[in-house]
């Protein structure tokens, strides 16, 4: 498996009545991420009743850019007005070290 050097951390705050819908949406995202060869890892996590995040990692900038222009990002932005209380916080970050199954 390739070494990760680039990642995204996307914080998502659901509307109080849409938390279950956002959770279901994120569960579907895992299947979509499997179709992206440059997305090396993809996690959806829940911090609290309405606070979620996505963490995904890539070998390089081109993999990250492909993901940002891919179907998961498009679906998120399309559904954001209905599901989210605020715009998603999308942070481009560098990976310093990793341990991946291999």
Report on the architecture of this protein.
- There is one protein chain.
- The chain is an alpha+beta fold and 102 residues long.
- It has a single domain (6-94), classed as Alpha-Beta Plaits.
- Helix content is 36%, strand content 27%.
- It has 3 helices and 4 strands; from the N terminus they run βαββααβ.
- A hairpin with a 4-residue loop joins strand 2 and strand 3 (51-58).
- Helix 1 runs antiparallel to helix 3 (71-83).
- The longest helix has 16 residues, at 19-34.
Sheet having the most strands: 4 strands, antiparallel
**Helix-strand string:** EHEEHHE
* Helix fraction bin: 25-40%
Strand tally is 4
What share of the residues does DSSP label as strand, in percent?
Answer: 25-35%
Can you tell me the CATH topology? Alpha-Beta Plaits
Structural class: alpha+beta
- In CATH, the architecture is 2-Layer Sandwich
The neighbouring-strand order within the major sheet is 2-3-1-4
Task: Write down the domain tally.
Answer: 1
Characterize the overall form.
globular
Rg, rounded, reads 13 Å
* Name of the CATH first level: Alpha Beta
Q: Round the mean pLDDT to the nearest integer and report it.
A: 95
Low-confidence runs of at least 5 consecutive residues: none
What is the straight-line distance between the termini?
A: 6 Å
Helical segment count: 3
